[in-house]
Design brief:
The chain is α/β, with parallel strands linked by helices and about 240 residues long. The protein is built from 7 helices and 12 strands. Strands 1, 2, 3, 4, 7, 8, 9, 10, 11 and 12 form a 10-stranded mixed β-sheet that branches. A hairpin with a 4-residue loop joins β1 and β2. α1 packs across α5, α2 packs parallel to α4 and α5 packs antiparallel against α6.
Length: about 240
């Protein structure tokens, strides 16, 4: 049975999944989270359990294997929940939407949140790095040897989710990969995916996923153009 979690400008309609690790993948520079999300859905055979809707979302349906899908879907597999968007969420909705996701996590006693982002660079110099939403979480990441982004800005859904979860005592991290452009970057996505593997003991082979990501670049190209034209500034390093 699906239940509703509502805020002022958006609504989550989803099956309740208790004690899950929650992933959030939405478009940004390099489409890191979007590529990882699509490939996890295919690789792990995740099932669709719900969606997020808002009257402020663009009029859009996603076509996949000839079938229309809701543009902001929720998937689940073996205690892993994925919130996956195929469009740029309007900035005026981000606050309410991240509140709704946080409320959903509280209602379902979710274990932690992991989101994805990217940093546009002139030359790749660093591996994918991690940001935490608390000093306690950061200490654990450092003890495990994860590279940390020490200073900078975390824009968009990722940044708001980390602050909202922190206020509700939900552990959260963001994995950031360096990318050279706004366009789809499967290599950066695979690098972030390997960090995800280590972070939650996931066993996904990202080498074939890179090839698969390259095959769907044409579908993601239009989305990348929208990211390029988005007025919200990306992260630069």
């Amino acid at each position: 049975m699906k239940v509703k979690t509502e805020t002022k400008s958006c609504k989550i309609v989803s099956e309740p999944i208790k004690d899950a690790i929650v992933l959030e993948g939405s478009p940004g520079a390099g489409l890191i989270g979007n590529i990882i999300g699509w490939l996890l859905v295919d690789e792990l055979k995740m099932r669709e359990i719900g969606y997020i809707e808002s009257k402020y979302f663009p009029p859009l349906a996603v076509l996949y294997h000839g079938v229309t899908l809701h543009p902001f879907r929720i998937y689940e597999k073996d205690g892993l929940v994925l919130f996956l968007s195929d469009f740029i969420v309007p900035q005026e909705v981000v606050f309410d939407m991240t509140n709704a996701i946080t409320d959903w996590m509280k209602e379902n006693n979710s274990k932690e949140l992991i989101t994805f982002n990217s940093a546009i660079v002139r030359k790749r110099l660093n591996p994918a790095r991690i940001v935490a939403n608390s000093k306690e979480a950061l200490k654990k990441l450092k003890e495990k040897g994860f590279p940390i982004l020490e200073i900078g800005n975390l824009n968009g859904i990722s940044g708001t989710l980390l602050t909202q979860t922190a206020q509700n005592d939900i552990p959260a991290t963001c994995i950031l990969a360096e990318t050279l452009a706004q366009y789809p970057d499967p290599r950066a996505a695979a690098e972030a995916g390997e960090v995800l593997n280590q972070l939650i003991d996931l066993n996904v082979d990202f080498d074939p996923l890179v090839k698969e990501a390259q095959e769907i670049e044409s579908r993601l190209q239009k989305l990348a153009e929208e990211v390029k034209n988005d007025p919200q500034p990306p992260i630069y390093m």
